Amino acid sequence: MSNIPSPDQYFWFKSSIYIKRQEFNKLSILRGILFRIFHLSAFKSLKSFSNRIPIFF
């Protein structure tokens, strides 16, 4: 079993995963907000567009 990491390597690995997870959470929150704004604006423009031109979904 020579592939067992030393405790400091293990801690660094865990902390890097934690930092990546924190960054991912921030990104996903930001992406969710942006997606919601984009979705709402796209939905409004699509509604006004479909009011002018009849589109059958």
Can you walk through the features of this model?
The chain contains one helix and no strands. The protein is an all-alpha fold. Helix content is 81%, strand content 0%.
Fraction of residues in helix: over 70%
Rounded mean pLDDT is 76
**Main beta sheet:** none
Count the beta strands.
0
* Cα Rg: 23 Å
Low-confidence stretches: none
Number of helices: 1
* Alpha-beta content class: mainly alpha
The proportion of strand residues reads under 5%
For the record, give the distance between the C-alpha atoms at the N and C termini, rounded to a whole number. 61 Å
Encode the helix/strand succession as letters. H
Shape type: rod-shaped
Write a compact overview of the structure shown:
The chain contains 1 helix and no strands. The chain has one helix at residues 7-52.
Keywords:
57 residues; mainly alpha
Write the layout of secondary structure elements.
Blueprint: H1 7-52
